[in-house]
Amino acid sequence: MHPKQAAPRRAHSAANRVRIIGGQYRRRVLAFPDVTGLRPTPDRVRETLFNWLGQDLPGWRCLDLFAGSGALGFEAASRGAARVVMVERDAAAMAALQKNRALLCAEQVDIQRAEALNWLAVNRETFDLILIDPPFDSDLAAPVLAELSHHLASGGQVYVEQAGEVIAPSGFIIHRSGRAGRSHFALLVKV
Prior knowledge:
Elements: H1 3-15, E1 17-19, E2 29-31, H2 43-53, E3 61-65, H3 71-78, E4 83-88, H4 91-104, E5 109-113, H5 116-122, E6 127-132, H6 141-145, E7 152-162, E8 172-180, E9 183-190
Parallel strand pairs: 3-4, 3-6, 4-5, 6-7
Antiparallel strand pairs: 1-2, 7-9, 8-9
C-alpha cells in the first residue's frame, strides 16, 4: 500500500479520539463516534477553561449538557469532581460515553439519555459548574441558558461554547471569554 493512502485513515481515526489533559485520567485517550455536530472541545480550550476554574474541582457537582464525546465532563471528573452528570440524546454517543466511563472506572459519572431542555425541566438538582457545548452551529445554547438559574448552586459557574459570540442572559455576566478558530467560549457567573 502506498504511504499516502494510509495517512487519511490514521487522520480520520485520530479525529474520533480525545485526550484527557489533566488530573487522575491525564493522557487517557477516549474514542467517540461520528455524530453530526459533534466537535469535542480542543485541548487548548479545555486547558484555558480549567486554568480559569483553578485546575482542580475537588467535591464539585458538574452538569455536562450535550455531553457528546464527554471531553468536558470526563475532564471535570479527572480533576476531582465528586459528581458529573452527562446528558446526551444521541444513542451512539451515549454508548461511547458508557464505554469510556467503564474504561476509566469513573463511578462519579452519571450518564443520562435525554434532550437537554427536557432534562432541565424535570430535574431539580443544583450544580457548581454547568458545561454547555451544544452541537456546533446549532442555536441550542440560548434556550438552555434561559433555564439554568435554578440549577446553579450559589457561587456556581456556567461554561458555554458555540459557533457564535456568547451573549450573557439576564441574571448572568461574562466573567471570562475567548475564541479558538470558529468556536467562541465563555465562563458566566450569576449576578
